[in-house]
Design a protein that fits this description.
Elements (H helix, E strand, L loop, with lengths): L2 H49 L4 H12 L12 H24 L1
Helix pairs in contact: 1-3
Keywords: Ion channel, Ion transport, Membrane, Transmembrane, Transmembrane helix, Transport
GO molecular function: outward rectifier potassium channel activity; potassium ion leak channel activity
Membrane topology: Multi-pass membrane protein
Length: 104
């Protein structure tokens, strides 16, 4: 194999390794907090149903209105897929910033 091909392959493997490790770290750090918050919200839901004497149907209607304003409609943000996407965004942002700095 040519030296340039080895360098390119090494760069690709290093980048994907960074992405996988970064995604795993964000998943480990953030998903537990999201699980705790989800449990807390479920407890709040039960408390509100009892406190305000709301039927489950009425609560679902209220929940639908609130969810429309939630920024992460697709689900938990810090699961592995979301963390992988964030790591990829960081790499591309840093690369774009370096290109701007180096070209100026």
């Amino acid at each position: 194999m040519k030296k340039q091909n080895v360098r390119t392959l090494t760069l690709i493997v290093s980048t994907f390794s960074y992405l996988l490790v970064g995604a795993a770290i964000f998943d480990a750090l953030e998903s537990n907090q999201e699980d705790k918050l989800r449990k807390q919200y479920q407890e709040e839901e039960v408390g509100m149903l009892a406190q305000f004497n709301i039927t489950p149907t009425e609560y679902l209607e209220l929940e639908d209105v609130v969810i429309k304003y939630q920024p992460h409609k697709a689900g938990a943000q810090w699961k592995f897929a979301g963390a992988f996407y964030f790591s990829l965004t960081v790499i591309t942002t840093i690369g774009k910033y370096l290109n701007i700095v180096l070209l100026d």
